[in-house]
Amino acid sequence: MDLTIEGKAYINGRFENCCIGITNGRISAIKKVLKGDEHYNFHNKLIFPAGIDVHVHFRDPGLTHKEDFSSGTLAAAFGGVSCVFDMPNTIPQTTTVQNISEKIKIASKKTYVDFGVYAGITNNNINNINALAKKSSGFKIFMGDTTNSFQLNKAGLKDAFREICLTNKPVFIHAEDDSCINKHRINEKNIADHLRSRPNECEVNSINNILNAARDNKVKTHICHLSSCEGLQLLRDRKKNISVGVTPHHLLLTIENNPEPQTHYKVNPPIRTNFDREALFDGIKNSYIDVIESDHAPHTLDEKNVEFCKAPSGIPGVETMFPLFLHLAKQDSLSFQRLISLLCERPAEILNIPKGRIEVGRDADILVVDLKKTCKIKLDNLHSKCGWTPYEGWTAIFPTHLFVRGEKLIEDNELQVSQGFGRLIGA
């Protein structure tokens, strides 16, 4: 046995004192007493499965002044995330086997944590879905316009679902209806205008189109970044093959707070009302929502600090996601059981990867947390290239240690591995 980790670990739905044995990067035993070649005793600290972020935009290749696989996965690691899945709206877009292969090659040299990439589906590459599946962890479809995106029209959705179903890979969908967005488009001066331009109706219309297209098949369909109370209501009685994600910014921020500077909070789908936020938070507490996903979409301060209508949409969050919600769980705003399901267990199930739980046979991706170590989020301590965070000054709990495949990545806020440690997973 290469390594043993001792402490109060989350096993089968509850915390219990035990030892976790690790051999060749996998959990090989869980018992009261174990000894390996190397042994860590974390005493009264809590041991979690590490987080999985199913939705990041690391901008590599083509927009690496905002972020790249090195800085993005470094931020993920310090935030307790051992595995990330990158979206296809980069430059070039990962809509061909060649572009996906090139992105994987770049990521393999830069990443600190494990990673997967999604293939983007357009009206022009539906016939290539089987070939794309062999290289990707899943698929991404944009139903509405957003940063450097590509659209699949409503007519092509059923055709895409039919082909995706044959691959047994999940499809992740940005659910905003493009025709609805065009109908409501106005000259935007602030986040309230941005909400008027992309009202709840646009999300609802898109979700209805997705549900209709998915009615006759069993394709694993994930609705990304749900943002409206009406959308949640539509999805409460969904089929088992349809999962739902929500972001920290839609769970924590509202237009009523009137945050400044306004451009920093411009995102698609938009920040909505407190009524929507409360409905979504109720959704994560009561298991109507499957996943918390960061939708980490960094832009530089120079790009954000412009006239509102010219500012790009997107908010960073991969490093602050787990720490913010660890603090909320400590405050009993959310149970630890639900938090682990949302950030670890369900993401692993949706993507069919051997992570997300502390159990024999799984990757030894392990997070160690001292609940007494609360802190204020400070930009100077974060690792994204973009140079800002919407959560400056918010209370959080950052992990003290992170292990990925049994290797120690983070110890007391110090990095322990080199670039290129991360491995491709899910392809």
Describe this structure in words.
The chain is an alpha/beta fold and 427 residues long. It has a single domain, classed as TIM Barrel, CATH 3.20.20. Helix content is 29%, strand content 22%. It has 13 helices and 18 strands. The protein has an 8-stranded mixed β-sheet with strand order 3-2-1-4-13-16-17-18. Strands 5-6-7-8-9-10-11-12 form an 8-stranded parallel β-sheet. It has a two-stranded antiparallel sheet with strand order 14-15. Helix 2 (97-110) links the parallel strand 6 and strand 7. Helix 4 (154-165) packs across helix 7 (200-214), helix 5 packs antiparallel against helix 7 (200-214) and helix 7 packs parallel to helix 8 (229-235). It starts with a strand and ends in a 12-residue tail after the last strand. The model has no long low-confidence stretch (mean pLDDT 95).
Strands ordered across the widest β-sheet: 3-2-1-4-13-16-17-18
Stretches where pLDDT is under 50 for at least 5 consecutive residues are: none
Per the CATH scheme, the topology name is TIM Barrel
How confident overall, as mean pLDDT? 95
Share of helix, binned: 25-40%
Question: What layout of secondary structure does this protein have?
Answer:
Elements: E1 3-11, E2 14-23, E3 26-31, E4 38-49, E5 51-56, H1 69-78, E6 81-86, H2 97-110, E7 114-120, H3 129-133, E8 138-142, H4 154-165, E9 171-174, H5 178-184, H6 191-197, H7 200-214, E10 221-223, H8 229-235, E11 242-246, H9 248-252, H10 274-285, E12 291-292, H11 301-304, H12 321-330, H13 336-351, E13 366-369, E14 375-376, E15 395-396, E16 401-404, E17 407-411, E18 414-415
Parallel strand pairs: 1-4, 5-6, 6-7, 7-8, 8-9, 9-10, 10-11, 11-12
Antiparallel strand pairs: 1-2, 2-3, 4-13, 13-16, 14-15, 16-17, 17-18
